[in-house]
Amino acid sequence: MQTPGSQSSLHRANLERVVRAVRMAGSLTQAEIARTTGLSAATVSNIVRELKDGGTVEVTPTSAGGRRARSVSLSGDAGLVVGVDFGHTHLRVAIGNLAHQVLAEESEPLDVDASSAQGFDRAEALVGRLIEATGVDRAKVAGVGLGVPGPIDVESGTLGSTSILPGWQGIAPAQELSERLGVPVSVDNDANLGALGELVWGSGRGVKDLAYIKVAGGVGAGLVINGEIYRGPGGTAGEIGHITLDESGPVCRCGNRGCLETFAAARYVLPLLHSTHGPDLTMDKVVALAREGDPGCRRVISDVGRHIGSGVANLCNLLNPSRVVLGGDLAESGELVLTPIRESVGRYAIPSAARQLSVLPGALGGRAEVLGALALALSEVGDSTLIAPSVPPVPSAPTSAGEGELPQAPTPVFT
Questions:
Q1: Per-position b or e across 236-273, b if 16+ CB within 10 A of its CB
Q2: DSSP at 279
Q3: Cα–Cα distance, 269 to 149 (Å, whole number)
Q4: Closest to 9 measured CA to CA, from 18, 1, 19, 17
């Protein structure tokens, strides 16, 4: 029996601290583990050896700063996580392990707006098919991350806006999918998960303050402050698509007039080109035509960029992020949209905030949200469940930090 403050309980806490650091980062050298956790190098070496003997981690030779080192990652068979991303027109699912390796991934078209039941039926079937394709025991699934294209009410777990997904009214997405799959499910909106995906694997790596702007059927932002997703007390932080640009402008689906979304989202932008390019135009096609030199498509994308830049300038003035990452279909247009965004930021943002800001396209494309869902699931895995209870502690050499002392380092985050 472990009592609070006992040597065994402190040792267990240090084991979990090391496992958490490795789980959140994917892989770390032993020196990086020591810096992240605040534990001494000798203590980390003993703990890594213990975890390796118990099958929790794998250790492989690597190099750091030109010197030989050992890279520590969670064992590939320690468990699985699942990412599920519902977009307005697609369903994407990915299966990954706790070593941050994507084992299987697939997407299919889906009208998510039409029916929540149909969406969950399809998601359940696709998850089962991909788990079977990996050949891994389904019982190893430790958790699921779920993304939906709308804000989640923190208190009820339901969608916070019925105007965005009317067919999902009263549905608690995490509870629904958890009951179907029999495992814990964590849910967030797609913009937050896009931010998390880019933060861990894409254009947000190495920064602690960024905004991920997703422009698709709607416009949303995922905000990262000090390395963590900021959701706000009600879960609706980042609804940049509903800041007002023109109070006499078009009526938005939220009921207000002149929201950024009415000047940038596909549902409002595409009709501007219907008379010249036909009614079957998609944003993907607009981007492709613009890259080929089509003047109408280039003008529309430039105008959208200027409007998005106005919203980004407001973010700069309020939050002063160091990086903005543009996601969604529009990001594929590259400098055609990024240049007008930067110009608007330069015009409307406080000069000091504008100088510190870099605006980049997302590196993950359409995968950002599903990879963010995997990252969300990884962040919720219980560290104690990953440690083999049968492995006896390895005696530690006397150190300045010692096994009897639990360092008060901050909890590691995805950086």
A1: bbbbbbbbebeeeeeebbbeeebbbbbbbbbebbbebb
A2: T
A3: 19
A4: 1
Provide the H-helix boundaries in 135-277. 173-181, 190-201, 261-264, 266-269, 274-277
Can you give the pTM of this predicted structure? 0.81
Tokens of 372: 């963010």
Q: How far apart (Å, rounded) are the C-alpha atoms in residues 75 and 52? A: 9
pLDDT (tens digit per residue) in 248-284 = 999 998 899 999 999 999 989 999 999 999 999 999 9
Neighbours of 226 (CB within 10 A): 9
Residue 257 has what DSSP assignment?
B
- The sign one gets for the Cα dihedral 38, 44, 47, 52 is positive
DSSP string, 349-368: S-HHHHHH-EEEE-SSGGGH
All residue ranges of the chain with pLDDT < 70 are 1-5, 160-164, 383-385, 388-415
Pick from 334, 362, 357: nearest CA to 346: 357
Order of all β-strands in the sheet with 57-64: 27-29, 67-74, 57-64
